[in-house]
């Protein structure tokens, strides 16, 4: 299949319009030639009327297509297009007049063929000018269009189309029916001419230009129509082209809309500056609303605030005074003022009412404004607006003018609005920054959680003579509890549980240090006392002064069925004796690691040992369990833990652990989890 080229309506209609005009010229010149040579007329006037109507339609199609392709053209350029078309037609018509004046009374000046040619040229230019301007007016009329206005314009277009064919019925301008139709079109044109909503959106400079362009259109419409009518009154026009009701009605519409636009624009000139100022204020308000974006800071908002406020109040000088870290005052975004004069004004403000009433600590600054006179050789009035974010005064905007009482109510209101919006933007930025920091902190905590989980053992060393299981849960995202085991030799095991003072990432960091010390020291297979003393020395070099670690270190010998242990300030181990069916806490004196960092520490450490039998249980835990509180503030406590272990002693080690945890959660109830990290290890012996 062949792809046919897309038809260019504009070019085709322009070409056909030119051919139609040449045909109209040929027909009318032929009619004159026959008349001059005494020949019988062979062409009826209806042929000229038909070609005239066709020419109107083709010109309309051409300009309508052109406007649709350039629909984003601004108002001033649109009016200039109409004025330039009229100016061109005006120059041609004036040139023709000058040409005939130069010919004077010569024979050429009386030649009907030449006169008829110029008559058709003027007719074509007038038609092009009027049709193009009518379509331009349509674009302006339908700006901010409503259904009613659209319907009015559509009705007017239908009337203009009907008026084209009126020439077949009546060909006399002076006929009453023609005059009635012209008056009706004039009334319709006047109704459409009140749609001038585009004028207020012109700037002061643009309004002056539009007045000039509209003057050209008004003058062109009047002169060209009179020029065309002057040809029609002569003997050379055998077919009077100006008898067209369409052409006369269109000229009335173009003239009335241009005149109406001219007068309204002229009367709007005094208020243009006010409208422009309001428009600038609206734009500045929008800039303040949209000024916070990712990657930017509040400094940009404050910069826009100063510019917008000075523009709205016509201030001669201005600056921002902000609270810097350390509660110091910092000057930002100075405009049109040097440091010396600014210092002079600041000193005047501090001792002049009402400015001296300003207080940085006033929580009610949000609703206050400070406006008054200054006794300064240059600046006679000032205006101060506090910047308040989250009920805290973060700064103040100071504006100064060289005239007394320079700030009126409108200025005060708009500047207050600007400051309020700027404060909202600053608050939004700070909230956004806090949210980003929080999100970054959460990501770091997730990493810390993964690291901490990797520090706790997945498998606890044991043999067939006993079972052991461990559990740990942090009160915060990360905690400082630690437990681990190490097989030292066949039947020989090192077991440790610890609790780092504090919570969060610092506790988790100290926990990792404890893990490293454990793995280093157990390589030498120390007894519990040696381990605790060496761990205290090692931790004393890396722990901060206000940090310490409580721990219980055990040496389990399954060959001798003996547990040797040393407690460094940690919770006492709970031991259940299956033979006596009794539970007791294994107390042993000890001081937390890092509390005393000298050679005297060993005096506070005591090693103990205990034998065990089948079914016996050792429960090692941190203080988060016994200190867990219910909603009444009652702690879970040592006795309750002892009772729970007794109730579950027949269960396997893992089941005992799960039972104790469930009892702690049931006790805590709605509070969710204990206030502190809690960790436990359950050891149950089979033989």
Description:
This protein has a five-stranded antiparallel β-sheet with strand order 2-1-5-4-3. A hairpin with a 4-residue loop joins strand 9 and strand 10. The protein has 17 helices and 15 strands. With 687 residues, it is an alpha+beta fold. The chain is elongated and about 150 Å long. Helix 1 runs antiparallel to helix 2 (45-69) and helix 10 (298-313) runs antiparallel to helix 12 (409-455).
SS field, number of helical segments: 17
Strand order of the largest sheet: 2-1-5-4-3
Our measurement of the CA-to-CA distance between the termini, rounded to an integer number of angstroms, reads 95 Å
Question: Based on DSSP secondary structure assignment, what is the total number of beta strands?
Answer: 15
Condensed summary:
This is SpoIIE family protein phosphatase. Keywords: Hydrolase, Membrane, Transmembrane, Transmembrane helix. It contains 17 helices and 15 strands.
Task: Indicate the topology.
Layout: H1 9-36, H2 45-69, H3 75-103, H4 112-141, H5 147-164, H6 166-169, H7 176-192, H8 204-232, H9 245-289, H10 298-313, E1 317-324, E2 328-335, H11 339-351, E3 370-373, E4 381-389, E5 392-401, H12 409-455, E6 466-473, E7 481-489, E8 492-500, H13 504-521, H14 528-540, E9 549-557, E10 562-568, E11 573-577, E12 582-586, E13 607-611, E14 617-621, H15 623-626, H16 638-647, H17 653-668, E15 678-685
Antiparallel strand pairs: 1-2, 1-5, 3-4, 4-5, 6-15, 7-8, 8-9, 9-10, 10-13, 11-12, 11-14, 14-15
């Amino acid at each position: 299949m062949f792809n046919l080229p897309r038809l260019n309506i504009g070019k085709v209609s322009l070409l056909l319009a030119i051919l139609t005009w040449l045909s109209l010229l040929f027909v009318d010149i032929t009619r004159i030639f026959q008349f001059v040579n005494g020949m019988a007329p062979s062409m009826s006037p209806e042929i000229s009327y038909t070609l005239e109507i066709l020419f109107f339609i083709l010109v309309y199609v051409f300009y309508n297509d052109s406007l649709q392709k350039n629909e984003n053209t601004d108002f001033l350029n649109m009016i200039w297009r109409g004025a330039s078309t009229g100016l061109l037609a005006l120059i041609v018509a004036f040139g023709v007049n000058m040409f005939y004046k130069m010919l004077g009374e010569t024979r050429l000046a009386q030649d009907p063929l030449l006169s008829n040619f110029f008559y058709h040229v003027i007719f074509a230019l007038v038609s092009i000018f009027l049709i193009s301007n009518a379509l331009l007016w349509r674009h302006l009329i339908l700006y901010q269009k409503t259904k009613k206005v659209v319907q009015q314009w559509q009705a007017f277009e239908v009337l203009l189309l009907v008026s084209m064919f009126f020439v077949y019925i009546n060909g006399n301008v002076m006929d009453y029916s023609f005059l009635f139709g012209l008056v009706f079109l004039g009334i319709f044109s006047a109704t459409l001419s009140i749609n001038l909503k585009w004028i207020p959106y012109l700037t002061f400079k643009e309004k002056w230009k539009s007045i000039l362009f509209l003057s050209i259109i008004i003058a062109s419409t009047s002169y060209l129509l009179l020029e065309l009518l002057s040809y029609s009154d002569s003997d050379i026009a055998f077919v009077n082209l100006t008898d067209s009701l369409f052409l006369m009605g269109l000229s009335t519409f173009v003239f009335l809309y241009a005149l109406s636009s001219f007068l309204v624009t002229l009367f709007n000139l005094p208020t243009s500056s006010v409208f422009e100022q309001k428009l600038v204020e609206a734009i500045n308000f929008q800039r303040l609303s949209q000024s916070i974006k990712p990657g930017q800071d509040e400094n940009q908002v404050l910069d826009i605030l100063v510019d917008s406020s000075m523009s709205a109040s016509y201030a001669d000088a201005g600056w921002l005074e902000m609270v810097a870290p350390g509660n110091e005052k910092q000057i930002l975004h100075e405009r049109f003022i040097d440091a010396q004069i600014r210092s002079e004004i600041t000193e005047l403000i501090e001792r002049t009412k009402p400015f001296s009433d300003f207080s940085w600590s006033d929580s009610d600054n949000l609703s206050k404004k400070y406006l008054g006179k200054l006794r300064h050789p240059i600046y006679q009035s000032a205006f101060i607006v506090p910047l308040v974010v989250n009920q805290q005064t973060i700064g103040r905007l100071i504006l100064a003018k060289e005239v007394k009482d320079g700030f009126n109510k409108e200025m005060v209101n708009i500047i207050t609005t600007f400051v309020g919006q700027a404060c909202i933007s600053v608050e939004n930025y700070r909230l956004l920054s806090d949210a980003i920091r929080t999100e970054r902190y959460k990501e770091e905590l997730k990493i810390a959680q993964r690291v901490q989980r990797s520090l706790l053992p997945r498998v606890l060393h044991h043999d067939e003579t006993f079972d052991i299981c461990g559990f740990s849960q942090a009160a915060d995202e990360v905690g400082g509890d630690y437990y681990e085991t190490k097989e030292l030799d066949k039947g020989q095991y090192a077991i440790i549980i610890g609790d780092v003072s504090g919570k969060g990432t610092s506790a988790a960091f100290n926990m990792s240090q404890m893990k490293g010390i454990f793995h280093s020291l157990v390589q030498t297979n120390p007894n519990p006392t040696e381990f605790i003393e060496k761990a205290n020395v090692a931790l004393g070099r890396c722990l901060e002064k206000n940090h310490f670690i409580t721990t219980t270190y055990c040496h389990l010998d399954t060959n001798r069925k003996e547990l040797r242990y040393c407690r460094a300030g940690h919770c006492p181990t709970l031991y259940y004796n299956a033979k006596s069916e009794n539970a007791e806490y294994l107390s042993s004196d000890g001081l937390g690691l890092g509390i005393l960092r000298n050679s005297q520490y060993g005096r506070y450490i005591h090693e103990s040992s205990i034998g065990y039998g089948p079914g016996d249980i050792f429960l090692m835990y941190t203080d988060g369990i016994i200190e867990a509180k219910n909603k009444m503030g009652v702690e879970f406590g040592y006795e309750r833990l002892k009772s729970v272990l007794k109730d579950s002693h027949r269960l396997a080690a893992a089941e005992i652990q799960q039972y104790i945890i469930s009892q702690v959660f049931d006790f805590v109830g709605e509070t969710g989890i204990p206030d502190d990290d809690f960790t436990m290890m359950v050891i149950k012996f089979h033989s």
